[in-house]
Amino acid sequence: MTALTDGPGVIHPASAPDFMPAPQLRDLQLRRLQAVVRHAYDHVALFRHRMAERNITPDDIRSLDDVRRLPFTAKADLRDTYPFGLFASPMSDVVRLHASSGTTGKPIVVAYTQEDVNVWASVMVRSFAACGLHRGDIIQNSYGYGLFTGGLGAHYGAEALGATVIPTSGGNTDRQIMIMKDFGVTAICCTPSYFVHIMERAGEMGVDMKKLPLRAGVFGAEPWTEGMRRHIEANSNVKAYDLYGLSEIIGPGVGVECRFQAGLHIFEDHFLVEIVDPESGEPLPKGTPGELVLTTLSKQAMPMIRYRTRDLTAIDPEPCACGRTICRIARIRSRSDDMFIVRGVNVFPSQIEEAILRVESTLPHYRIILTREKGLDEVEVQVEVTPQVFSDEIRALEALRMRLSAEIERIAGIRMRVRLVEPRTIERSDGKAKRVIDKRDL
Amino acid sequence: MKLKQLSVFLENKPGRLTVPCRALADAGVNILTLSLADTQQFGILRLIVRDWQGARAILEQVGCVVNVTEVVAVEIADRPGGIAQVLDVLEQLGLNVEYVYAFTFRHRDKAVLVFRFDDPDAAVEALRSRGVSVIGNEELYARMG
Question: What is the pLDDT of residues A216-228, one digit of tens each?
């Protein structure tokens, strides 16, 4: 079995495309780009109109740089054309639909042909392989099954890998822990915040995470921090890998970390990467942080051309020690969608998480409450008190509060009120954690 | 010769004190004494009970954050000047008190002061050398009958 792992000098056979020589990769990307642009042009009215406005046709795509001449696609385009307006395949070829939660108004709908489903499974196989998983692993899939792409995406990938999949979906944490223990689970897929909750609950149930065979966590669907990774890895035997994806592109499996945990490898043979200035949309030089823009190179049912992900990152120009030739981007520290503006300052929940974990390496259970008092924005960060930080003396607790407040101000650049709250008062989520509660009437 | 004291973190809002007290009541645990320190935001409930390990488990089961602290119990005469006398000794010894609270027994002329010191062991030794009556768990409960 070990011969198949993504360890020193050993690569899972499915990972071969990750190591494709650069010229061959660029050539493949160009041919696929030309084909997908032609396909979208022929079948998606919105895209055809935008091409026409720019006086270009698919024949104008002669090099990879020509991608810059193509129009962007934004999330609003998916909403405006709800439900099927961006489909490029007839419904008779569409074998699957997924939809976003649609917290504001209508959800967005995404479609897959059988070939798309196969590609999706293949990038998930490569994701698991990069995390050192293989046939013989027992993978507990705690991503929610349903309209959300996380559950089925990881499920098909894990099966195609040849691993044993336990489709627990989210929720019922006690049963998750029982299964993890009784079935000898070796890897888990879920949001990092849910895994933190699982560890916490396991402790309460008297289950020692360090005695379980669980050795890998494939965590995604929400931004998380290095502090969170340190917390997970210190309190379990899990090596915590970051998995990246978004429904509009394919779902989970757009990119993943390898064993060096030094940024996300993007499966470039299927997804073309650009980094642009989030304001102007102008391309940025390699290494400069900006907004990630992705083009699906092989999607049939719903190709996305230059999709504005709203995720902020940068391409790492250095080759990774693992030897992959596909490009690597910095961990997504923030989604511009999660950003909130307080008194004119842009703040990301990940900054607050980092600050809290810096002060005390304790459970990162926190919540951010935004209110407006007398026309002024107020932010309150609620942090749960844990046995590790709880002191018998008021003075020490006040000092902890001050340290949290000072660290948040240092990292986020704005003063926030910190409130220590009792344990378990912040709602646990089995999916994406809801960190920000905006009570302002904006 | 130190006492184990349980401390519980509480948010400063109505009803929060009920949770730990109700849990102990339901389990038949008698609270020997308690004190509550608070700020605008939060409070710390400090408890002395006979079976501190049992009480701690009960409190943790209902989701409380519990801390065990060693405190020093000093027996004094339950009459005017009883506290002042001990405080004079503390001052002479240069012992800094983090906090203190008091309680009395039924039908006795003694009271007990519960002190929190930085270094409880050193405090116990120093107090004893000055003839102050420091009492531990057993003596305390023997006096309770």
Answer: 999 998 888 898 9
